[in-house]
Design a protein that fits this description.
With about 325 residues, the chain is α/β, with parallel strands linked by helices. It folds into 2 domains: about 180 residues, Rossmann fold (3-Layer(aba) Sandwich), CATH 3.40.50; about 130 residues, Rossmann fold (3-Layer(aba) Sandwich). It is built from 13 helices and 14 strands. The strands form 3 sheets. It has a 6-stranded parallel β-sheet with strand order 3-2-1-4-5-6, with helices on one face. It has a 6-stranded parallel β-sheet with strand order 11-10-9-12-13-14, sandwiched between helices. Helix 4 links the parallel strand 4 and strand 5. Helix 1 crosses helix 7. The chain is globular, with a radius of gyration of 21 Å. The relative contact order is 0.12.
């Protein structure tokens, strides 16, 4: 009897989320020989198709004749057409609304629930999630309720956790299957000379720096690079305002930072305690430097113990921005 599996993908807000999900799909297609076909139903969030085209979404999914992809039109009752062999594939936390619809349609029969990484937030706790929601403009009591709901769902609902980072016997390990999926999508962009790339965070928006402090911060980094004969490029955070960077080279943003060969092969990649910096170091083995400034101390205090453990395992210890000059040497 031929076997067909419906995979319902929820919670995708970025291209990197798609790659995490794609690594799981590829793993199932390669290793489960009993599958004759997989239909992927992508339930797009409000942000996904506003930021990215349907073609960009499909390009990051595995190419396999057994895989068909349907990007669901908002408002469509997709759950009525889902077959008995079903996987709910969710980013960061179980898609509770999608799960409720599936349970109702399937008369209480629970699909296989797989939760994949959303980034460093996946390794946080209730307090770190609540702090992240507050930084994004959330207010009480909604932020506390939302953080509690995510923590509760993550504690009891998932059947499988599909993560880039796994902690076994007290040691962090990088999953080679997930890392390989990211490397598949490295683009063809090249740097013309040794360059230091700065992965920024929206620190002005978050209140960690004033506009003037931010400008001085960038000027110090740029001047130190130029003094050592190195290029200096800035890769702004997606939420950052490019108008904050009038006097530096802003690197074109064709895709996610993890897919940019210029960043993967840079002389040095600088950043704060971010998902992008951790991933680039873990996936590509790039030379990285984690910086800190007094204004960021409050943000770092909101990290969970597990997040700190992961950051410390993958990244070098943070240094003050003034110490950057000590590592700016051309090999």
């Amino acid at each position: 009897m031929r076997r067909y599996v419906d995979v319902v993908l929820t919670g995708v807000k970025s291209l990197t989320h798609l790659v995490y999900a794609s690594s799981y799909l590829r793993h199932r297609l390669v290793n489960d020989g009993s599958i004759d076909g997989v239909r992927l139903l992508v339930i797009p969030g409000a942000e996904l198709l506003v930021k990215f085209t349907e073609e960009q979404v499909r390009e990051l999914l595995p190419t396999d004749e057994r895989l068909t992809t349907q990007i669901v039109t908002p408002g469509t009752p997709w759950w009525r057409d889902v077959g008995p062999d079903c996987v709910l594939l969710s980013i960061g936390a179980p898609g509770t609304r999608a799960l409720a619809r599936l349970l109702r349609t399937r008369r209480g029969s629970k699909p296989l629930v797989v939760v994949v990484d959303e980034g460093i937030g996946s390794y946080g706790n209730w307090r770190s999630r609540r702090a992240a929601y507050v930084r994004k403009g959330g207010r009480e009591p909604e932020v506390s309720l939302r953080a509690a709901a995510v923590a509760g769902a993550n504690a009891v609902v998932p059947d499988v956790r599909w993560s880039l980072y796994q902690k076994l016997n007290g040691t962090w390990h990088i999953d080679p299957v997930v890392a390989a999926e990211f490397r598949r999508h490295l683009d063809d962009q090249q740097l013309e000379r040794p360059t230091v790339v700065y992965l920024t965070q929206p620190w002005v928006k978050l209140g960690a720096m004033t506009v003037d402090e931010h400008a001085q911060h960038l000027a110090l980094l740029r001047d130190e690079c130029e003094r050592h004969g190195l290029g200096f490029g800035v890769r702004p955070h997606p939420l950052d305002d490019e108008l904050l960077y009038p006097d530096v080279w802003v690197m074109t943003n064709r895709s996610a930072a993890e897919f940019d060969r210029r960043i993967a092969q840079a002389h040095l990649v600088i950043g704060g305690s971010s998902t992008a910096l951790v991933n680039i170091r873990a996936i590509h083995g790039s030379r990285v430097m984690r910086i800190s400034t007094p204004g960021l101390a409050g943000l770092d205090r909101t990290l969970s113990g597990r997040q700190r453990s992961l950051l410390d395992a993958v990244l070098p210890p943070p240094v003050d921005v003034a110490e950057v000059r000590s590592v700016l040497t051309v090999d």
